């Protein structure tokens, strides 16, 4: 069992240890819905009451993990677009898809954030999450706009759809044990459960191409001098 953190650096490390433990457990158990505070503290090597020094609740811990997911997604897109220009809608959709499916726990958390996590923490903690997630969202739009031919309005539509489809798609493709057994009995009901990545890429590519077509780019001639 780790000793109680005393310095600010130690506290930051304990906080990160808890997040790392939660991430690992979500991956091993098949989703954040199976995570308990006791399991997280045990994995992190802390006393079962230790988590309260860093996070007031399970919901706050998971919301912090989601906030980190936004930062990781933003960083991945920045890295993918740093040296690129002239990306078409299909290229943009590919980058968006590949970077978000590389963050499966984040995809899972997107559902829980909207359903409960934001509403079950203190207002200031919800404000912090909103501030950081919107900043990451804006940075993603800016990076993709700079590197490609899609406008900010088109990209905002694409990212909004990505969040919804990734959240839903992850849940469908990771059924509970009961549903997994049911799909074995009736395979035609479970066909969507085993095609998360290719289905997401197909849908986002179609959306990117469509948005590029139906949302007009600003007319340079109408821009103010």
Automatic annotation (TrEMBL):
SUPFAM superfamilies: Homeodomain-like (SSF46689). The keyword DNA-binding applies. It comes from the Bacteria. It holds the Pfam family TetR_C_34. Residues 36-55 bind DNA. Keywords: DNA-binding. Residues 12-73 form the HTH tetR-type domain. InterPro entries: Homeodomain-like_sf (IPR009057), HTH_TetR (IPR001647), TetR_C_34 (IPR041483). One of its GO terms (molecular function) is DNA binding. Gene3D superfamilies: Tetracycline Repressor, domain 2. This is TetR family transcriptional regulator.
């Amino acid at each position: 069992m780790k000793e109680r953190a005393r310095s600010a650096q130690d506290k930051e490390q304990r906080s990160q240890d808890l997040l790392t433990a939660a991430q690992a457990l979500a991956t091993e158990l098949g989703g954040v819905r199976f995570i308990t505070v006791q399991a997280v503290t045990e994995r992190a090597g802390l006393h079962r009451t230790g988590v309260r020094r860093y996070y007031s609740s399970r919901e706050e811990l998971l919301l912090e993990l989601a906030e980190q997911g936004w930062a990781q997604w933003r960083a991945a897109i920045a890295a993918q677009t740093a040296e690129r220009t002239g990306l078409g809608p299909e290229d943009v959709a590919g980058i968006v898809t590949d970077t978000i499916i590389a963050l499966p726990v984040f995809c899972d958390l997107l559902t829980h954030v909207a359903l409960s996590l934001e509403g079950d923490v203190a207002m200031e903690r919800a404000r912090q999450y909103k501030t950081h997630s919107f900043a990451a969202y804006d940075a993603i739009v800016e990076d993709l706009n700079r590197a490609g031919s899609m406008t900010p309005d088109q990209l905002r539509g694409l990212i909004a759809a990505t969040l919804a489809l990734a959240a839903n798609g992850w849940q469908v493709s990771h059924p509970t044990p009961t549903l997994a057994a049911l799909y074995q009995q009736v395979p035609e009901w479970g066909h969507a459960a085993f095609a998360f990545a290719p289905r997401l890429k197909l849908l986002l590519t179609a959306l990117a191409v469509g948005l590029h077509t139906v949302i007009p780019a600003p007319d340079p001639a109408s821009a103010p001098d």
